[in-house]
From TrEMBL, chain B:
The keyword Nucleotide-binding applies. This is ABC transporter ATP-binding protein. It comes from Nonomuraea diastatica. Residues 2-256 form the ABC transporter domain. One of its GO terms (molecular function) is ATP binding. The keyword ATP-binding applies.
């Protein structure tokens, strides 16, 4: 049952959370296309809406949150925003594999990995459980683990890097071809992180996946992603081919974020923290540009008008940036 | 000056059906952190860097060797007598969300250590208020706007600053920062690192920085020393920029090779080093501790343990029989 990598088209997606102050948008009017067979990285700080966006792919935003507008079209599934309970449950796992943030701690501590695997198989109506175990062992072996030993282990017997690989195995074992990894390497040290990223790249290529990686760490995206999308305050402020965005960032937030990365060589003073702090759900401005409070290029129009994303066709794929100042500068 | 000689720590695991297992967390570590100086401990999870930091902060006991604070060795002292010495060393934890009591305002958080201090030195209430405002200003917060706030009303970066301000209330000689920026938003991390550097320069506080992210170690001061720790042994030690630019130990080279390359901005190093297998603490203790994972091991490495020494031709100390310079780190494209 080979499936091919699905494409995903997110169009005008808005997700709101109900708060005492009314419904506030965590994700606002986001357009994003995942081309089949690519790895896309979404970078953002805490409160940028990146995890909420990722959950929308599963239509799994929990109350008090809800998708209030837009659509998420996935090849072979249709618009997941319209899917209901049972259809959704089946889609999750079979079509979309999800490796949750802190996958290290998302295993059941009372059951062996093997038992959890069988639970997963039964809940998805898999008839050939032996085949499922075989597949799981193969995947674990592929990731450099002793499959039989891992399936017999409890969570506490595995290291952080091993648990992360178990998470990836559970996301892929039902033959999902769209995979979402939420912060796949936080709390792992550098060597383990490099190892996991290498596995993500290789498994992605071998199994023919469409992969979405959510992270706060630009380095992670730089290592694995074909395309990079930058989120801030619920808005997608810039996206494009990873190398182009990193080499020549256009949005002032992307520039600031790259400048804020501690570097191994060069003048220490070149790296600078961004002034101010990222907005929370409660402090995101209701109108105008979400980044203006921290922006060195702020203009009058930024206070009142939220900039639309301007899309340019580039050599390596489309690039988009949502900034009044950039638009003025490049079209003056 | 805070020094340590030959520190040994063994953790005994008990309760397992099939007998106890011992883990050697530290195998005779020496260190010296001068007043106002900076040192960084780097290594993988489980290498012993946090244990060493906790020993230095007086939060963990040790089995052999000694910690000397100023010129007072700690071993001969009774626990109660050690307290005033270890109080000069304050720990900044990784998670600023759990390090502050959520039911206390910033004012209340600072009040507790300050009132103790005031009692000891016979100072007045107004001194406490002044001092609270002073430490908040030192960490770059506006006392007027944060004193009455609760932790949940502050961002991660601001919380970490409050934690540092609380540590400063007791006039410490050293701050031990264990992964102090790993939970802070990326755009704000450098601000916290710059603050630590600033406190060194302005107050003469030494900073011990424990991290797995080598690049951050440069930002608390390029005069700092880097200690690369592997399975409880320091395997390379020297000035931070020297070790980053010219590491000679294959383990240090593996750590540096693992740092993500910002493709588009940087070119990867030409001779990246990848360990042959992942860390397994149950591996045999004979010979070089890194031998099993080392792509460059020789016969000698299997039987003999190399000790940290200053070798000819390189400015840093290392513990390797076959040290060799390799170009492992990514360089900016603009440099080429």
């Amino acid at each position: 049952m080979t499936k091919s990598a699905p494409g995903v088209r997110i169009d005008g997606l808005t997700v709101v959370y109900k708060t005492p102050a009314g419904e506030l948008p965590a994700v606002r009017d986001v357009d994003l296309t995942l081309e089949p067979g690519t790895i896309t990285g979404i970078v953002g700080e805490s409160g940028s809406g990146k995890s909420t966006l990722a959950l929308s792919l599963l239509n799994a935003v929990q109350p008090p949150g809800r998708i209030s507008a837009g659509s998420v079209e996935i090849d072979g599934l249709g618009d997941v925003v319209g899917l209901k309970n049972e259809q959704l449950r089946k889609a999750r796992g079979k079509h979309i594999g999800y490796v949750f943030q802190a996958a290290q701690n998302s295993l059941n501590p009372l059951k062996t990995v093997g038992k959890q695997l069988l639970d997963l198989g039964r809940s998805h109506g898999v008839d050939d459980l032996r085949g499922l175990v075989r597949e799981a062992k193969e995947l674990l072996g592929r990731m450099g683990l002793d499959g039989a030993r891992v399936l017999d282990s409890h969570q506490h017997e595995l290291s952080g890097g091993m648990r992360q690989r178990v998470g990836i195995m559970l996301a892929l074992v039902l033959n999902a071809h769209l995979v979402v990894l939420d912060e796949p390497t936080t709390a792992l040290d550098m060597i383990t992180q490099a190892n996991i990223l290498k596995i993500v790249r290789e498994v992605h290529a071998e199994r023919g996946l469409t992969t979405l990686v959510i992270t706060h760490d630009i380095g992670v995206v730089a290592e694995v992603a074909d395309r990079l999308a930058v989120m801030y305050g619920g808005r997608l402020v810039e996206q494009g081919p990873t190398r182009e965005v990193l080499g020549a960032p256009r949005h002032p937030y992307t520039k600031g974020l790259i400048r804020a990365i501690p570097r191994l060589v060069g003048d220490i003073d070149e790296a600078q923290a961004l002034p101010g702090r990222p907005p929370t759900l409660a402090t995101v401005p209701a109108e105008g540009c979400v980044f203006r409070e921290r922006c060195p290029l702020r203009m009058d129009v930024c206070d009142t008008v939220d900039p639309d994303a301007r899309v340019d066709a580039g050599a390596g794929g489309p690039r988009a940036v949502a900034c009044h100042a950039v638009t003025v500068k490049e079209h003056a | 000056m805070i020094t340590g000689t030959g520190i040994v720590k063994t953790f005994k695991q008990r309760g397992k059906v099939l007998g106890a297992r011992e883990v050697q967390a530290l195998r005779g570590v020496d260190f010296a952190i001068p007043k106002g100086g900076a040192a960084s401990f780097i290594g993988e999870s489980g290498c012993g860097k946090t244990t060493l930091g906790r020993i230095i902060a007086g939060l963990e006991t040790y089995d052999a060797g000694d910690v000397v604070i100023g010129d007072v060795p700690m071993s001969p002292l009774k626990p109660k007598q050690r307290q005033p010495h270890f109080r000069k060393i304050q720990m900044i934890h990784q998670d600023p969300y759990s390090a502050l009591n959520p039911t206390r305002t910033v004012h209340q958080t600072l009040h507790a250590p300050l009132s103790l201090r005031a009692k000891q030195t016979g100072r007045s209430r107004s001194w406490m208020e002044e001092r609270a405002a002073e430490v908040l200003s030192l960490v770059g917060l506006d006392p007027g706007s944060v004193l009455s706030r609760y932790p949940h009303q502050l961002s991660g970066g601001m919380r970490q600053r409050v934690v540092i301000a609380r540590a400063l209330t007791v006039d410490p000689e050293m701050l031990v920062a264990d992964e102090a920026v790993s939970m802070i938003d990326v755009s704000l991390r450098l601000g916290i690192l710059a603050l630590l550097k600033d406190l060194r320069e302005r107050l003469g506080v030494s900073v011990l920085f424990i991290t797995h992210d080598v690049a951050t170690a440069r930002y608390i001061g390029d005069d700092g020393e880097l200690y690369v720790i592997y399975r409880g042994q320091v395997v390379e030690r020297g000035p931070v920029d020297t070790i980053i630019a010219d590491p000679v130990h294959p383990y240090t080279q593996s750590l540096l090779s693992a740092i993500p390359v910002l493709h588009g901005l940087e070119r990867p190093g030409e001779q990246p080093v990848e360990p042959l297998e992942s860390l397994d603490e149950s591996q045999a203790d004979e010979g070089c501790l890194f031998a099993r994972r080392c792509p460059f091991r020789g016969e000698r490495c299997e039987d003999e343990r190399p000790l940290l020494h200053l070798a000819q031709g390189v400015p840093q100390e290392h513990a390797c029989f076959f040290p060799e310079r390799r170009s492992v780190i990514a360089r900016p494209m603009s440099e080429v």
